[in-house]
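#struct-pred

JT: dropping the chains for the assembly here, can someone run the whole complex?
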Amino acid sequence: MSLDRTDVEKIAHLARIAISDDEIPATTAKLSGILDLIDKMQAVDTDGVAPLAHPLETTQRLRPDAVTESNHRDDYQTIAPATESGLYLVPKVIE
Amino acid sequence: MQWEIVIGLEIHAQLTTASKIFSGSATAFGAEPNTQASLIDLGMPGTLPVLNAQAVRKAVKFGLAIDAEIGMTNVFARKNYFYPDLPKGYQTSQMDHPIVGKGYLDITLEDGTVKRVGVTRAHLEEDAGKSLHEDFQGMSGIDLNRAGTPLLEIVSEPDMRSAKEAVAYAKTIHSLVRYLGICDGNMAEGSLRCDCNVSIRPKGQAEFGTRCEIKNVNSFRFIEKAINTEVQRQIELIEDGGKVVQETRLYDPNKDETRSMRSKEEANDYRYFPCPDLLPVVLEPAFLEEVRAELPELPQQKRERFESEFGLSTYDASVLSAQRELADYFEEVQRVCGDAKLAANWVMGELSSLLNKADLDIEQSPVSAAQLGGMILRIKDNTISGKIAKMVFEALANGEGDSADVIIAAKGLKQVTDSGAIEAMLDEVLATNAEQVEQYRAAEEAKRGKMFGFFVGQAMKASKGKANPQQVNELLRKKLDS
Amino acid sequence: MHEKTLAELSQALQSKTLSSVELTQHYLTRIEQFDGELNSYITVSPELALRQAAAADEVIAKGEASALTGIPLAHKDLFCTQGLRTSCGSKMLDNFISPYESTVTQRFIDAGAVTLGKTNLDEFAMGSSTESSFYGPTRNPWDTERVPGGSSGGSAAAIAARLCAAATGTDTGGSIRQPAGFTALTGLKPTYGRVSRWGMIAYASSLDQGGPMARTAEDCALMLQVMAGFDEKDSTSVDQPVDNYSASLNDSLKGLRIGLPKEYFASGLDAATADAIDAAVKQFQALGAEVKEISLPNAELAIPAYYVIAPAEASSNLSRFDGVRFGYRCDNPADLTDLYKRSRGEGFGAEVKRRIMVGAYALSAGYYDAYYLQAQKIRRLIKNDFMAAYEQVDVILCPTSPTPAFKIGEKIDDPVSLYLTDIYTITANLAGVPGIALPAGFANGLPLGMQLLGPYFSEARLLNIAHQYQQVTDWHQRAPAGY
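RK: done, full complex below.
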């Protein structure tokens, strides 16, 4: 499977990763190489095989509904890039 | 052209758990920003989710109440998109294997007809935070207190054909989740939110038209207005030769219009996949039976019982059963007074208007069910008339006495039924109004009706409303017509 | 004192022939002396270490010590350590002072161990050479022109150069076993779910597993004893009793059935490594084991399946690094999209960005079935291969990598050739089974590694087998010259 420039731009956008024009050719080539490696899977007939998401195939444990957390806002926000009045700041969100 | 409207609703109900769906943070509404956002809710690196048992239980409760298939093995999946109120860059939700599968709800329309609406599915997911758009030097502020609050997303089939039907469906869901005690239904606080999928098609056409999704409509009134506005927009668009584009729109109640949400336009490749941090949730049949045993009588069952057991009209029965607390109140009044119709009339009449005026919930009613029932007993045994009852009710509401009896006694409102006393009083009234008596007797039969009313009024006034009106009528007639 | 193994140090501390403060100071001095060249640590925490050491000495004085009390350890820098930078080897988290402690490191704190610092790794554990770190490559003490393997290469180099007694690592596709093989160490990847992932910054959640790296199996047993156990904070943690790993170290190997997967000895395997494993087979036979050939027929599909599943999970796991609540944020973002794109574009290195993009692609509309679903089906086939093999044998013996340590820079521009170095280790992660890597010999002064893979929760048996082998060999006792 080989990708072209538009594919790479689309994926980079989906993943929200800035990619400069001069990075695109090399990235395209490397991603295509990886996809070639991956595509070896396509030759295998897996009809009727159930997908495996977790190796141990156990089931979800449930937690009792209890409030166990207290307010640590100040601690948690010391490592935040930008806050004000307890809020995380981001460039204006347009709806 | 004749257009048919097709509507499906996605209702997000916040489940009333103490803690969040995947963390031990509180879910209380209205806390200071980010004070209920734990490491997990903030999406801190290395943190992991553990599922809240109550969220599962409440979702199953809903599923059983709508007679749905329950996902005995249900799976959480990640819905990937970037948004500042979504701390992990994905929403943990359910995709291919929801906890609640196909079910249905019967809704009662205004004309009393019942319509069945299909529920496609209902799945558990985590709520997002909030973006606050007040100006912080041109920035938006993010509050993640709401992030991780458990939601049940209830997806209907596109079975509704008018805005009114959509509202009836939304109200039915609202009533049901409150009955079940799984959601507080507070739409103003966003506990119950509604996305409306709206499309139109020429009448008779089988295929659906292109739909638009109106996001986050947060009152029943707005659901109706938003849908009607959107339908109008789509009709005008198509009739002008345009085409409806599938998109997400926002309803602006101030301008009564819907507009496209730019931010959501491109985020349509959500790359769902099973969440590797959570394992499949496997439910045991015994658990289902345990939850089923906890189910209360549901609104529809209650409505039917009110009709059959109490002989109420479908309308009265559905009004009284729509809210569990109201139904309980009504039943208590009925139990005390033994008269379902009078109980229904008082609850839906005086009591409702009192609560409406004071903006109170039924639980906050200043007149208790026992008080109202006790008062109705006094109407029934002719201690007071209906008119006097209104005064007694008002006095009860003002806290002037603990019971109707106390108020009746204190205010001397007991009805006069002694015909001797009434006759004496009537004689006096007639004597005072001798002129009018003459006129009455001289008048033609046809004109006498109105004039008769005058004497009744005078008599009631003279008795301060306490004379039994029926007796007053009978005795007056006898005296005047003899 | 750094010549001693962890077990020996533990005895010395408890018999008070050595204090933890002395020992800790000794390691700190060695780090100062040697790590400039090796670059095995990203962060050294002398104050914390000496404080912990002093506290440990008090505990020892009171006679309340456990095996790990006062032992100076290093932690791979993707275990969150409260108040200490936890970088994942990434510019993205260069400023990330963790607000909380991972379960694994908390367990070591509770056991009285000392934290010397945080070790280097491939950025977000995505790599096999520790070259993709934002903090520069780590060098292999056996040959500083070569890589120590990865992604737990910092831990491997630090232990091999005797800059700590033992260390933690994580293994998503071989990141404990392959560097152990490259540096003549013993490293164990436990059964998926045996060690809590809480606070272990995720690369690929369904594959990641933390484990110990040390010089001997005996040391790994002591380390794993602390790390293993149920954690209610991790839904994938398994609630099952933990074996006493030291107790069975001396069990006999008589009657042990060892399988050699024929697919792993086909083309592409370095001759010296093949010879070393042949020799090991003879040693095991001499210890009473029976050896036979087995087949893992779908083994060659492991790499393609892994390079779908791991990047897919990673693409989602790493979405939280968005410049909003923590971590790197670009300067002067023009708008929200610009904030995301530049923070991530500038904060992540090339390999991380590649894997995120591969993962996003594999999950995107129209490709999900062909890539992600197909990979998960193959994952099932691979697990089935193991289950079938364990019907016939108790453990599987195979190399850890096709070649010994390669040169720094040799594969950096060719991701696919680097991916292929994980060929023997990845299957265990896909199946979730445990594996232990241990030194099997040397060629041209470079360590050669081998690994033993066992059924679920067979860690005690794997440690026992490795320990027995180490009783009759001395590969694990060799130290790189100059350290």
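JT: nice. Residues 220-239 of chain B form the longest helix (20 residues). Chain B has three domains: 3-290, 303-411, 419-481.
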